[in-house]
Design goal:
Elements: H1 7-16, H2 28-37, H3 45-58, H4 69-100, H5 106-113
Helix pairs in contact: 4-5
Length: 114
């Protein structure tokens, strides 16, 4: 499979649990350069699939190494912290907007400050 942001990661982890499946994650730049070498200019899902299949047939592939359970847990924790910080910033911005308006009921301000 081609690495696509974070979309490939969960699938790669799930597939790596099977002993019958060998997982390989292809660098998007390598896939792009390979497509250029094939003079493939159009980009559709079907064409991308054909390019990746050709890549797998012609290029040496390296098996993807699944991260340790500790690394997966740390990744989940870091993502949760990031999401919580984003929510905190949103609430802080909302509180600032609510405090500017004289008509905001005190109960709303109190609940938002918590």
């Amino acid at each position: 499979m081609e690495a696509t942001g974070m979309h490939h990661f969960d699938l790669a982890v799930a597939l790596s649990r099977s002993e019958k499946i060998t997982v390989t994650v292809i660098n998007p730049k390598a896939a792009h350069n390979f497509a250029k070498a094939l003079m493939q200019r159009c980009k559709t899902d079907s064409i991308d699939a054909d390019v990746l299949a050709s890549y797998a047939e012609r290029m040496p592939l390296v098996q993807w190494q699944r991260p340790s359970e500790e690394a997966l847990a740390l990744r989940a924790l870091a993502r949760r912290i990031s999401a919580t910080n984003k929510i905190k910033a949103q609430v802080k911005n909302q509180l600032g907007a609510l405090m500017v308006t004289q008509e905001t009921p005190e109960v709303i301000l109190t609940q938002t400050k918590v």
